[in-house]
UniProtKB/TrEMBL annotation:
Residues spanning the signal sequence: none
Pfam family, one: TauD
Entry keyword annotation includes Signal: no
Domain spans labelled TauD/TfdA-like: 32-316
GO molecular function, one term: dioxygenase activity
Keywords: Antibiotic biosynthesis, Dioxygenase, Iron, Oxidoreductase
InterPro entries linked to this entry: AlphaKG_dependent_hydroxylases (IPR050411), TauD-like_sf (IPR042098), TauD/TfdA-like (IPR003819)
Lineage of the organism: Bacteria, Bacillati, Actinomycetota, Actinomycetes, Kitasatosporales
PANTHER family for the chain: GAMMA-BUTYROBETAINE HYDROXYLASE-RELATED, TAUD_TFDA-LIKE DOMAIN-CONTAINING PROTEIN
TM helices/strands, residue ranges: none
Gene3D superfamilies: Clavaminate synthase-like
Source domain of life: Bacteria
Name of the molecule in the record: TauD/TfdA family dioxygenase
Co-factor requirement: Fe(2+)
Amino acid sequence: MSSSSPASLLEVELPPDRPPILHVDPPGDPAGWAAGHRDALRGQVTEHGALLVRGLGLRDTGQVGAVFAGLTDGLMTEREAFAPRQSHGPGLYSSAAWPDNQPMCMHHELSYRLEVPGLMLFACLSAPDQGGATAVADAERMLQALPATLTERFEREGWLLTRSYNDEIGASLEESFGTDDHAAVEHYCLTHAIEFAWQPDGSLRTRQRRSAVVRHPGTGRRCWFNQIAFLNEWTLAPEVREYLVDVYGADGLPFNTRFGDGSPIGEDVIQLINSTYEEHTRREPWQPGDLMLVDNIRTAHSREAFSGERRVLVGMAEPQRLPDSDPTPEVSQR
């Protein structure tokens, strides 16, 4: 099955259970090709929510950076990262550091920030032996598939992200905020609606409430847009959760999520969200040289467990301040 439109002028395959795929002949200049087809490629992302481009033959970070630059008006600097990344230049990053044998469940990148990337860009330089796909799921369909009683509560209350920064798990202060200076971190929190509390040992705990359902800035359609399940304790492997609770305590986990009113989210709710995501997941194994574009608000993405060497570069673009995602927490320094 294929799709074409006057706006895109590209023949895109729409295989069931896989993201839309565009096969191209290897261009001599991938960056020039990408810049020349920018509007057509972006048109396909607007139409389908995601697009995998196969055949570009991307080989190194310089090439990927040039392609990303040709497809955007500039890449974002990541802030509030939940896991470390290696930088390969302004706005060009490695995949987030996460155990190979643990999946990164479906989520919308940085959905807990006030300003979120509207577009995600991925490029595969080395494909793993098994697994490791960057799978996608439609956020509108997710909202429709989840029980109305649950989505209505989250839409009414929002969701709460709690974080405890330490030197062992997740991003450090400097990796997350771009600095480890306490005054600068406090200023960032105060200007980004994040509650913060310095602990006796000098570590930092934060809380931020965000909307779980937002309207897409382009279509106006309501989307299930959050990281409620991915960053919740019940998504962790049982042995990992037990270890973290034992070391840091139930209230000191590196990250956790709650209902917007602060009450705990049960394991059954997290299992329901993750199983519903699985029902709507589309996946295609990476091949070296692949490029993938994802509408970060309309489409969730994941990183599946893998074995072998996996090298995928990431860029974030089109910052969006969603008008209905502004939280109203009590900001304090307690």
